[in-house]
From TrEMBL:
Residues 236-258 are annotated as: Disordered. InterPro entries: Plipid/glycerol_acylTrfase. Residues 71-185 form the Phospholipid/glycerol acyltransferase domain. The lineage of its organism: Bacteria, Pseudomonadati, Pseudomonadota, Alphaproteobacteria, Hyphomicrobiales. It comes from Roseibium salinum. CDD domains: LPLAT_AGPAT-like (cd07989). This is Lysophospholipid acyltransferase family protein. The chain crosses the membrane at residues 7-28. Coiled coil: none annotated.
Length: 258
């Protein structure tokens, strides 16, 4: 039953995304601020699909820790869930994403229209310079830069592998960084077709204000995100129907300490 439910969900997730992109395509002709409403609408529609078909609910803690204006949101990356579900938390977000996503038909048009920040990983020095300029413009406009400091999805409980690039952003942009932890990897694991019912808990942590040395900022951010993420994983064990992914978490932790 779980496999069938997951299959229906996965198919409808991408089908609904395609349909909404086509239906909302006239918004691409509007000014960016007028057409932005289509993106959080898409997010909420997919979250409704997650709740109804996959049984994934959401609890968000710490909304009061989101300051007004420009900021960097440093998010734990365990799942496809956070690439969709966290968007409505922000008034004018921009993701730092792989340049190749711009080449996807229709989807790429939206990333260009709403000025998401592409990065060419093959040409690192030029890419970093272009990314930094785009990030400075976004912060000057009071936008929120959404970034996954680990660069790619990591299984829940796996050894973290954060990139130092976010420390350069923090130093050069001079804006707050808001760490965000969650346990979505327990319910929609990376590289898994199965989606498990349960409540994803998101914890928005107090912002790290500008002014710290880059090394100190990096250590603080990693420690805070990892401590909160581990705490949310442990909290999920107390659910009436704990996710079976917790067994994999225990295996990964055992391998880390072996």
């Amino acid at each position: 039953m779980l496999l069938l439910r997951s299959t229906v969900f996965q198919i409808l997730f991408y089908l609904l995304t395609l349909v909404l992109m086509i239906v909302f395509s006239p918004a691409l002709l509007l000014p960016r601020k007028w057409g932005w409403w289509v993106v959080p609408t898409w997010s909420r529609a997919l979250q409704l699909l997650m709740r109804v078909l996959a049984g994934i609910k959401v609890e968000i803690r710490g909304r009061e820790n989101l300051p007004e204006g420009g900021l960097i949101a440093a998010m734990k990356h365990q799942s496809a869930w956070e690439t969709v579900a966290l968007i409505p938390l922000f008034s004018s977000p921009t993701f730092i994403l792989k340049r190749e996503l711009r080449w996807i038909p229709i989807f790429g048009w939206y990333t260009a229209k709403f000025r998401q920040i592409p990065i060419n990983r093959g040409r690192r020095s030029e890419a970093l310079k272009a990314m930094m300029q785009a990030a400075k413009e976004a912060i000057a406009e009071g936008r929120q830069i959404l970034i996954f400091p680990e660069g790619t999805r990591r299984p829940a409980g796996a050894e973290p592998k954060y990139k130092f690039g976010i420390a350069h952003l923090y130093k050069d942009l001079g804006c707050p960084v808001v760490p965000i932890a969650h346990n979505a990897g327990l319910y929609w694991p990376r590289a898994s077709w199965k989606v498990y019912p349960g409540t994803v808990i998101v914890e928005i942590l107090p912002p790290i204000e500008p002014g710290l040395p880059a090394d100190k900022f990096y250590e603080t951010m990693v420690a805070e995100i990892e401590a909160a993420s581990d705490r949310l994983i442990e909290e999920a064990r107390q659910a009436s129907r704990p996710s079976p992914v917790l067994e994999q978490v225990d295996g990964l932790r055992g391998a880390r300490t072996a």
